Amino acid sequence: MNIIPFQFNNSSIRVIDKAGEPWFVAKDIAEALEYPTAYKMTRSLDADEKDAQIVGTLGGNQEVTVINESGLYSAILKSRKPEAKTFKKWVTKEVLPSIRKTGGYIAGQENDSPEMVMAKALLVVNSIIEDKTKQIEEALPKVEFYDKVTHATDAISVGKSAKILNTGRN
Question: Where does the record place the Bro-N domain (predicted)?
Answer without folding.
Answer: 1-103
